[in-house]
């Protein structure tokens, strides 16, 4: 806890920084390029990722949700992408800062609708971190998904992803010899670690 009584969620801060870094690294001509999410370009992945973050904040606070369906991103942004991402990340970080670490149950926008705070914040972080990787890979940037962050998120993924595969995650890809925690996590959520545009 900080002196102001806000909760510091290190895993969320690291995932948000990964997404922030990936978005800042997109070149001006990179927003329409393909991504590991085959149906979406880079702008759409950003809209989806930001929308998901706002959905977590709305579930926690009862505030407004995303301005469009995160699963049907338009691909059209009327504002600077970096500012768009920052606004979503701030909204979400502020919402989680008001949640005590030992909270037994919080509302979340994914099945089953309520989770412990510790698992819920990791679900939110997982979403940000994986989409950070999507954006970075799509634009030729370095992976922002560190093995340490991936290792922390993998346990949460194993508890959360299966009910979401029908609409949010592709089938898992079997692990391969030599995988680090980041590669293992990516395969589990249906990504190929060696994907390139």
UniProtKB/TrEMBL annotation:
Transmembrane segments: none annotated. Residues 12-136 form the Mycothiol-dependent maleylpyruvate isomerase metal-binding domain. InterPro entries: CHP03086, DinB/YfiT-like, Maleyloyr_isom, MDMPI_metal-binding. Pfam families: MDMPI_N. It comes from the Bacteria. GO terms for molecular function: metal ion binding. NCBIfam families: maleylpyruvate isomerase family mycothiol-dependent enzyme, TIGR03086 family metal-binding protein. This is TIGR03086 family protein. It comes from Streptomyces beijiangensis.
């Amino acid at each position: 806890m900080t002196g102001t009584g806000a909760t510091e969620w290190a895993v969320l801060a690291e995932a948000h920084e990964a997404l922030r870094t990936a978005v800042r690294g997109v070149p001006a001509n990179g927003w329409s390029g393909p991504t590991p999410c085959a149906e979406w370009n880079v702008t759409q992945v950003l809209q989806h990722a930001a929308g998901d973050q706002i959905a977590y904040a709305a579930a926690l606070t009862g505030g407004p949700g995303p301005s469009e369906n995160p699963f049907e991103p338009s691909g059209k942004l009327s504002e600077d992408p970096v500012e768009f991402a920052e606004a979503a990340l701030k909204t979400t970080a502020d919402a989680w800062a008001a949640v005590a670490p030992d909270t037994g149950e919080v509302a979340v926008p994914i099945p089953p609708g309520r989770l412990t705070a510790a698992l819920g914040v990791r679900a939110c972080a997982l979403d940000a971190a994986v989409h950070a990787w999507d954006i970075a890979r799509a634009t030729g940037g370095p992976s922002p998904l560190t093995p340490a962050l991936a290792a922390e998120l993998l346990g949460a993924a194993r508890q959360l992803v299966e009910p979401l595969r029908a609409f949010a995650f592709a089938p898992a890809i079997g692990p391969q010899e030599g995988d680090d925690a980041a590669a293992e996590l990516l395969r589990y959520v249906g990504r190929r670690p060696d994907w390139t545009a």
